[in-house]
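Human: Respectfully, please carefully check these tokens:
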Amino acid sequence: MKGDVKPFIDTNTLNKDGNIGLDSSIYAFSDDGLILAYELIESGSDWRTVHFKHVEKGDIYKDKLERVKFTQLSWTKDNKGIFYAGFREKKGKADGSENDANKNKKLYYHVLGTEQSEDIVVAEFPNNPDYVVDGRVSNCGNYLIVNPAEGSDNNLILIADIRNGVKTKPELEPIISKMEANYFFIANNENQFIFLTNKDADNYKLISIDITNPNPDPKCWKEIVPEDKNNKLEFAKAVHDKYVVLCYTENVKSALQLHDITSGKMIKKFQLDIGTVNFGSFFGDRKTPHVFFNFESFLTPGITYHCDLSKETFDLEVIHEIKLKDFDREQFTVDQVFYESTDKTKIPMYIVYKKGLKKDGTSFAFLTGYGGFSDSILPYFVVNRLVVISNFDGFHCVANIRGGGEYGEKWHRDGSREKKQNSFNDFQAGAEFLINEKYTNNKLLSVSGGSNGGLLMGACLNQRPDLFGVVFAEVGVMDMLRYDKFTDGHEWVTEYGSASDPKFFPILYKYSPLHNVRIPDQADKQYPAVMLATADHDDRVSPLHSLKFAATLQYEATKHINQKNPFIIRIEKDAGHYAGNSLDKELI
């Protein structure tokens, strides 16, 4: 499995300023494996341009697809073109520095060798301009599966027969016609289409629907792998014709299983350490027996595993392991603890520290959290935290609060919309736990979070300023009354609710960081030190959130002479929310 390695796409050569990056999670090889469609990022913006490169010749095609955003790339079986989603007809700027809302997203089909202006509109929803849409070709190549969605919570499933090619807008037939759950297409065996869904299954399950008779009653669907009531099914990948690999989250760590794709019977459970397997790092398809994936943990930078499914034992083979000079993982301890939130819910927390470090309340601690959009924070490797806790004796802590997906959809719902305060309560209870259990004290406790985690920081800063010594909020959502007016914010209404809705206005107003800055006016109390970070091409969470919050903090500080701790903001130029930023522009 080893051979010579040479660069295929080197983004360091694309631009002398270093502000063009490769989206390593979104790409697609044509069915014959000869052409790669890939996305480039400029200045960290969420806007992408799609390019094409011949694998053997190394030639880059003239085709260039612009105004592409949050999309899969899926080739037709004949290798002639791809489906992609975006805003080709959007007026005005689209470089990441704009604030106007992105609506009326469409699905297109591009034939290689033609102009983008000739691309066929495959799916559009003018009556539902807030819908986000994506499309994928079935593994047999005969069908296109389209999944219009409301934010990240619910989606429909529409299918078009594309056996005769795509020359005009295809007719889409509804398979799932109610916005009431998530459905992710996994694979098909002829007319039996397999989906991962949380319909009547908070922790997700694998089902099969006969598209020749798509009965809308879930009782008529075939259940291939039932819901595990204790563990969330994070993703499924069809591999080597007759198998499907399932990745579960078990007590906030990844667990991989191999199942028969028809019967659902479990064939093997792979033995892994406490860590994470990300969907974006998992490679395998139904044409070959070879499966590859990357594993990481708090103490493991990365291990690439290979499994040959043509062999009877399905053993994992280490292909590559990242090793850091002078780093000894045996010097550290990783504990998982559970603490009570304000409503007695048990919240898990990982704590990483150097062996032998005493818990006497004199050490510093980093605490981070997220708690939104059903995203789970599983063990991850972050070298800068290890360097600091190793050299200065501290604790690196991750609170898996509600709003995330660590324990399925109920865990998510219990920390979103009208229950969003649970996320803040969970995080504050985690801070109190670290202080009460003598890991640290409030003056030595630093907390951080980004994006939705930045909202978490802003809300907790206002609600419990006494708990923290330093608050770092990166690219945070700070204006909860107007967040849905800018860029892609309207897609988050299913997560937060909208201030335009009389039901949600008082809920959002009560915790919106921008509208709740209340610096104590007592001589012995003040806000902790605060650092905000944003970027001028962040078109996911517009910089205006951090700018307005920074201005409000500074204004309030002038009214309280006892506020001595600083409020500062870092604004990175030619950078965005996260992806595509060069190393010297990474905010943390």
